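Data deposition worksheet. Section B asks for the primary sequence of the deposited chain exactly as it was used as input, without tags or linkers unless they were present during the calculation. Section C holds the resulting structure in token form. Section D is free text for depositor observations; keep each observation to a single sentence. Incomplete worksheets are returned to the depositor.
Section A, Depositor: J.P.
Section B:
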Amino acid sequence: SFDCSGFTSYVYKSQEISNARTSSAFATKGVSVPKTDCRKGDCIIFSGTTPGSKTVGHVGIVLENKEGEVRFIHCSSSKKHSGVVISVLETSGYKKRFLDIRRLF
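Section C:
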């Protein structure tokens, strides 16, 4: 099974996109892009689960940015939805953990 960074790394590697192995390392790759300008394939970065933390702890891949609604795919260990899932940033608990979006290609 995958953790979030393992899944993200696997997907990017399959597309021959230079990437990282840990969620914190993804936060240093590529260039930061505003959430409003993100597009399919961008790496989305979140803090860990500690409330108020700004330490990187979770990553995923943007699937779509449509009319300000960002959908992303990631590997979750949540009891609610474990495994590879698709989430909507604005209506999920990930909104308060959002840190950055990185364009790796």
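Section D:
The radius of gyration is 12 Å.
The helical segments are 4-14, 23-26.
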